[in-house]
Amino acid sequence: MSAFRSTYLRYEELTKLVHDWARAHPEFVRVKSIGKSLEGRDFWLLEIGREPDRRRAAAWIDGNMHASELCGSSVALAIAEDAIALHRGDNRHDLPAHVVERLKSILFYVLPRMSPDGAEAVLRDGRYVRSNPRDRREHAPVPRWVAGDVDGDGAVLSLRKEDPSGEFVQDPEIPGVMLPRRLEDTGPFYKVWPEGTIENYDGTHVPDPHYLADNDVDLNRNFPYAWRPEHEQVGAGSYGASEPESRAVIDWATAHPNIFSWLNLHTFGGCYIRPLGNAADNKMNQEDLALYRQIGEWGENIGGYPMVSGFEEFIYEPEKPIYGDITDFIYHTRGAIAYACELWDLFARLGIARKKPFVDHYSKLTRENLLALAKFDRESNKGRIFRPWKRFKHPQLGEVELGGTVSTVGLSNPPYEVLPEVCQRQAAVYLRVAAMAPALEMKARYADGRLEVEVANAGYLPTYVLDSAKKLALDARVFVEFEPQGGVTLEPRDARVEVGHLEGWGRGLYNEYIFFQRSRGSVSRRTVSIPVRGKGRVRVRAKGLRVGELVEELAID
Fold it and tell me: Is the pLDDT assigned to residue 20 strictly greater than 80?
């Protein structure tokens, strides 16, 4: 079993792995850097598929844009490894032969770690980082928390201090477990803060901790579609795509209109989050929605997670969308089937009934749920989350205790023991999504002074991918081009003939009248015919932005 299926890789380990794959399989694996972080780490992108420079439909996967969400890297690598295995003749998911051939015919673009600096800080120090461990803001001289390893033990945990106004009490049975204070509790009571120091501390007033107190940007608020400034969207950054990570991804996406599906991997929760992010489903293109319903069915039955609307079930404040989201950017500007996956179904593992809206799982929790987590940690996670408290003299706060919750393994990410299952199931889902790719086919023949070319789409998706994408400047029409050679001539107007859009055979889910079965007409196939004169050869090329091109040469005599 590959290491990333049983642990979370450091940057150097991940770098070695992707380059080892490229060296072992140069005929269908390529790795390149699409940019560098501010600390000098590369954003490694895997390109999987034979002839990667020959454009055709491509499926994208990215992981670990949020630093602590390490499982995203593992699942992205698992999808990459399973795609590589298909080219080696190893069908790890028992897919039908025709599905395997379709997957081998497309390209996979895999960015396993979008935030290498942040992930490294989490793995090295155990500190909390949202996306990247940097802060380039000019701060007013007011107090703020700066995380750090104050006792030099190699980990950044939490600190607690007894205080009659404290909001927490210690569980009497499980060391390290702090419970929200109730009216009936008799104490002692504690304040709980991040391990670290207070910048601009006046010796008396402790500031409120904030998850972006010392790391300035949330990458999933930094993408330019519907971007809002910081006072409207926390974590937005100074402007849309201000960060090297988001810019690298945007540049690649914009230069590759052949990307038809986009999976953005996060933790935790156990759900898939689809568009729309800014409006209810009754405002969504219903043809698009039908496709997402089909993916949602695979997700529920194979991956074990429900699919939810970003706006209807995953906004933190009513009627207030999340701005600057990557999947919104890809769906609305690149016309791809974009969605996020919150890996690791911790709530289900704790026996918490499914809530609606799904986002309530994160806020409407009880002490009993926290105790269930402590029990899970003790029985199924080798006690990795809750650490006992130890005394320490803090340079600013005096006598405190260090310990508490370490969220990396078991809370923010699945336990190592569960990771193989998560990788296996989520790869199985996304390979099916990737197999929906539009598939251009061409047959050309010459007879009686005419060239006749039949162009077809044999894929599930249409050549324009999403119905809503037809309105974009991205022109997804298919064309046939003719290049005469030797003594062959043709009319200049016939050198390039529009085929237009070609429909796929798929309709999504619940998008047809199942009791009144009728097929559409010849919407997936077109034939063009042009006159030619002379003798020689003609190169025929069928091409489209989203499906690449096919080339054939015919003799004319």
Answer: yes
The two tokens of residue 60 are: 């994208």
CATH topology for the 3-122+216-344+412-434 domain: Aminopeptidase (3.40.630)
Residue 290 Ramachandran class (φ > 0 left, ψ -120 to 50 alpha, else beta): alpha
Residues facing 445 on adjacent strands: 452
pTM of the model: 0.95
Q: Which long-range contacts (CB under 8 A, 24 or more apart) does 122-127 make?
A: 122/67, 122/68, 122/70, 122/408, 123/8, 123/10, 123/70, 123/408, 124/10, 125/149, 125/154, 125/155, 125/156, 126/154, 126/155, 126/156, 126/157, 126/406, 126/408, 127/156, 127/195
Distance, CA of 300 to CA of 291 (rounded, Å) = 14
* Rg, the chain, Cα only: 27
Alpha helices in 25-131 (DSSP H): 71-87, 97-105, 116-125
Nearest-CA neighbor of 73 among 41, 19, 113, 42? 113
| 3-state class percentages of the chain: helix first, strand second, coil last, to nearest 5 | 25, 25, 45
Q: How far apart are CA 167 and CA 164, in angstroms?
A: 9
Q: How far apart are CA 449 and CA 341, in angstroms?
A: 55
Residue 519 has pLDDT above 80, yes or no: no
Strand order in the sheet with 386-394: 178-180, 168-170, 190-194, 158-162, 398-405, 386-394
Nearest to 371 by CA among 379, 359, 363: 379
CA distance linking residue 45 with residue 259, whole number of Å: 14
What's the average model confidence in pLDDT over 92-114?
97
C-alpha 211/C-alpha 395 separation (Å) is 22
Whole-number Å distance between alpha carbons of 347 and 464: 38
Q: What is the DSSP letter of 460?
A: S
What does the mean pLDDT of the chain come to? 94
Cα 413 to Cα 411: distance, rounded to the nearest angstrom: 5
Cα 256-259-265 angle, rounded to 5 deg: 115
Q: How far is CA 57 from CA 52, 54, 290, in A?
A: 11, 10, 21
Does the domain made of 440-556 have the CATH classification 2.60.40.10?
Answer: yes
Nearest partner of 111 among 398, 366, 326, judged by Cα: 326
User: Token digits for 549?
Assistant: 């091109």
Bridge partner list, 265: 63, 341
Burial bucket for residue 498 (CB in 10 Å: 0-12, 13-18, 19+): exposed
Q: How far apart are CA 455 and CA 474, in angstroms?
A: 21
How far is the C-alpha of 483 from the C-alpha of 340, rounded, in Å? Answer: 43
Mean pLDDT calculated for residue range 298-315:
96
Phi, psi dihedrals of residue 470, rounded to the nearest 5°: -65, -20
For residue 424, what are the contacts with CB-CB under 8 A and spacing of at least 6?
78
pLDDT of 531: 92
For the chain, give every domain's residue range.
3-122+216-344+412-434, 135-214+376-405, 440-556
Separation CA 315–CA 346 (nearest Å): 19
Bridging pattern class, strands 178-180 and 168-170? antiparallel
- Map tokens 């996670």 to a residue: 381
Is a pLDDT exceeding 90 seen at residue 412?
A: yes
